[in-house]
Amino acid sequence: MSTIRFHGEPANTVGELPAVGSAAPAFALTAADLSDLTSESLAGKRVVLNIFPSIDTGVCAASVREFNKRAASLDNTAVVCVSADLPFAASRFCAAEGIDHVLVGSSFRSSFGKDYGVTLLDTPLAGLLARAVVVLDAEGTVLHRELVSDIADAPDYDAAVAVL
């Protein structure tokens, strides 16, 4: 279990992010078109997992916008924006914002949050995902991980991209 903050109050997650140097857990998310978006479908690419509670919050939306900008210049890299939101919400947001360099994946019917240790156990956000970034190399090894210490804060974009 990890403890972070939500509006200054402790917020606990179900576990820990995978360690740097370890093999990332396989994942299966639901893509915007309701198809499966899996780690296997991204095999051979570097992957940035931008994990957050909900696209309907300012910091989460800003992280999708920022990673979309950065993804345009990353070779052989898939940036996957992951939340427990329904795929329709993420799709609608991306269409309205002109976001087309990232993939969106919903954890709403998968064990992603548990497998990556990011499902929130308490606070009003219980059941949603904590804000985190995990970067994988083309073989699926964890190069970088960040569990943002306060859900209201943005991740360290520069650190995430620097390991690529």
UniProtKB/TrEMBL annotation:
Organism domain of life: Bacteria
- Tell me where the transmembrane regions lie: none
Q: What does the record list as coiled-coil region(s)?
A: none
Write down the Pfam families for this protein, in alphabetical order: Redoxin (PF08534)
List the catalytic residues: C60
Keywords on record = Antioxidant, Disulfide bond, Oxidoreductase, Peroxidase, Redox-active center
Under which EC number(s) is this enzyme classified? Answer: 1.11.1.24
Molecular-function annotations in GO: thioredoxin peroxidase activity
Please write the reaction equations for the catalytic activity of this protein.
Answer: a hydroperoxide + [thioredoxin]-dithiol = an alcohol + [thioredoxin]-disulfide + H2O
Note the SS bond partners.
Answer: C60-C94
* Domain named Thioredoxin: residues: 18-164
Function per UniProt: Thiol-specific peroxidase that catalyzes the reduction of hydrogen peroxide and organic hydroperoxides to water and alcohols, respectively. Plays a role in cell protection against oxidative stress by detoxifying peroxides.
Q: Which family does it belong to?
A: Belongs to the peroxiredoxin family. Tpx subfamily.
Q: What else is known?
A: The active site is a conserved redox-active cysteine residue, the peroxidatic cysteine (C(P)), which makes the nucleophilic attack on the peroxide substrate. The peroxide oxidizes the C(P)-SH to cysteine sulfenic acid (C(P)-SOH), which then reacts with another cysteine residue, the resolving cysteine (C(R)), to form a disulfide bridge. The disulfide is subsequently reduced by an appropriate electron donor to complete the catalytic cycle. In this atypical 2-Cys peroxiredoxin, C(R) is present in the same subunit to form an intramolecular disulfide.
On assembly, the entry states: Homodimer.
Protein name per the record: Thiol peroxidase
